[in-house]
Amino acid sequence: MGLRIPHAGGIITAAEADTDSDSKLSESELSALTIAQIKALAAELGYTITATRKADIIAEFLEQQG
Questions:
Q1: Residue 28: how many CA atoms within 13 Å on its side-chain side?
Q2: H-helix or E-strand containing 26?
Q3: Between vectors from CA 43 to CA 37 and to CA 59, what angle results, nearest 5°?
Q4: What SS3 class is residue 48?
Q5: Secondary structure of residue 14 in the 3-state scheme
Q6: Which of 1, 2, 23, 60 has the fewest C-beta atoms lying within 10 Å of its C-beta?
Q7: Is 51 within 8 Å of 60 (Cβ atoms)?
Q8: If you average pLDDT over residues 40-59, what whole number do you get?
Q9: What pTM, to 2 d.p., does this model score?
Q10: Do residues 41 and 3 make contact, with C-beta atoms less than 8 angstroms apart?
Q11: Long-range pairs for 38-41 at CB < 8 Å and ≥24 separation?
Q12: 8 CB-side CA count, 13 A
């Protein structure tokens, strides 16, 4: 089923976040998640996260999200 993410438009899955430009996650939405949740979401989406600090992880995620 995949990771489910709280989003302004409701709960979305990683696949929806990857394919729907309206479902892109914001910095504040990512900040509400734990580091483990962000890394799991990134892995599902095929993103590579190398940072260790939460702010840097979020920045890498947003860069790869486009």
A1: 2
A2: none
A3: 70
A4: coil
A5: helix
A6: 1
A7: yes
A8: 95
A9: 0.71
A10: yes
A11: 40/3, 41/3, 41/5, 41/14, 41/17
A12: 9
What backbone phi and psi angles, to 5 degrees, belong to 4? -105, 135
Whole-number Å distance between alpha carbons of 48 and 62: 11
Residue 23, classed as helix, strand or coil, is helix
Q: Which residue has tokens 């089923």?
A: 1
Contact 4, 13 (CB under 8 A): yes
Q: Give the model's pLDDT for residue 17.
A: 60
Nearest to 31 by CA among 54, 53, 50: 54
Distance from C-alpha of 53 to C-alpha of 65, rounded to nearest angstrom: 18
pLDDT of residue 12: 58
The first and second tokens of residue 10, run together, are 């409701």
pLDDT over threshold 80, residue 40: yes
